[in-house]
Amino acid sequence: MKHIGLWGPSSSGKTVWLAQLYLRLHHLKTEWKVFPATSETQRFIELMRSLIVDQRRFPDGTLEGSGVKIEYEFAHPGHPDKLHVFTEDRAGVLSERLGDAELQAFGEAHGLMVLLDLERPNYASEVRRTLERFFLHARDSKQDRDMRPVVFCLSKADRRISDHSDFEFAHREPEEFVRRQLEPELLEFVNQYCGRHTYFPVSAVGVQIDFGLVRPAVYYDERLSLRLLNEGVPVHLLTPFEWLFEELR
Ligand SMILES: Nc1nc2c(ncn2[C@@H]2O[C@H](COP(=O)(O)OP(=O)(O)O)[C@@H](O)[C@H]2O)c(=O)[nH]1
Ligand SMILES: [Mg+2]
């Protein structure tokens, strides 16, 4: 079994991504199968099914002290290992607030996914501090850089896709699409600090496409809460995981 930790600050899109990944995997042409690894995750999925699919709502921001630990197991007939993906889905889980057990789990994971939410002020320094803390707890933290595969995901990428050429670019050159949006200091840090990494834009809700026109798959209802349209085509829902799974062969 290989372990992969998914980290992102609160509101960066962890809950929605992991929910959509499970709920929409069967729409994708893939031999990957995903299973909830715990009964807590099973309950999470049932809750999300009724919220996202039936009511087309987003989960409320995870409240202080009320989060769930979401854990999936991935399997593929052609892959030698089972892959265990976990996240700490709690409010305000910044690197400072992570407990020792969590730091240990992320430190010992075989691979990492990091969500980049560009709407957060100081997202770059937050990411740097977090990666440094994870690496301090890593098995071979004596090296000068972290050699585990890391995939950096620009979440809510639908907000940065306004026409068909953006949509194509996000699919054809995911790494370049994200690089162009990031602070140069962060790119530089990642180059020096992470031995194996890549970038993907991710949109769990996706965009609507009709006749080549790209439109948002979300809208604000009369109470000004963000709601989902069901017709969205998600962007890179599974591919960042597939990249990591291949690196971990
Ligand atoms: N436009 C857009 N908004 C998203 C997407 N995913 C999440 N959001 C918004 O971001 C909020 C926080 O997402 P959530 O998954 O709960 O973040 P978490 O705290 O990291 O688990 C949601 O309530 C949505 O309003 C996405 O793919 N696109
Ligand atoms: Mg959450």
- At the third CATH level, what is the topology name? Rossmann fold
Shape: globular
Instruction: Give the structural class.
Output: alpha/beta
> Which strand order do you get reading across the main beta sheet?
2-3-4-1-5-6-7
**Number of alpha- plus pi-helical segments:** 8
- What ligands are attached or bound here? guanosine-5'-diphosphate, magnesium ion
Q: From the coordinates shown, what is the CATH architecture?
A: 3-Layer(aba) Sandwich
Q: Could you outline the blueprint of secondary structure elements for this entry?
A:
Elements lengths: L1 E6 L6 H11 L8 E4 L2 H16 L13 E8 L7 E7 L10 H9 L2 E6 L6 H14 L9 E9 L9 H9 L1 H6 L4 H10 E8 L1 E8 L2 E4 L1 E3 L5 E3 L4 E3 L3 H9 L2
Parallel strand pairs: 1-4, 1-5, 5-6, 6-7
Antiparallel strand pairs: 2-3, 3-4, 8-9, 8-12, 10-11
Helix pairs in contact: 1-2, 3-4, 4-7
The structure holds guanosine-5'-diphosphate and magnesium ion (MG).
The site of magnesium ion has 4 residues, from helix 1.
Summarize this entry quickly.
The protein is 34% helix and 28% strand.
Name some characteristics of this structure.
single chain; 249 residues; alpha/beta; Rossmann fold; 7-stranded mixed sheet; 3-stranded antiparallel sheet; 8 helices; 28% strand; globular; binds guanosine-5'-diphosphate; binds magnesium ion
Describe this structure in words.
The protein has 249 residues and is α/β, with parallel strands linked by helices. The protein has one domain: Rossmann fold (3-Layer(aba) Sandwich), CATH 3.40.50.300. Helices cover 34% and strands 28% of the residues. It has eight helices and twelve strands. A seven-stranded mixed β-sheet has the order 2-3-4-1-5-6-7, sandwiched between helices. Strands 9-8-12 form a three-stranded antiparallel β-sheet. The mean pLDDT is 92. The structure holds guanosine-5'-diphosphate (GDP) and magnesium ion. The site of guanosine-5'-diphosphate has 21 residues, from helix 1 and strand 8. Guanosine-5'-diphosphate binds next to helix 1 and strand 8.
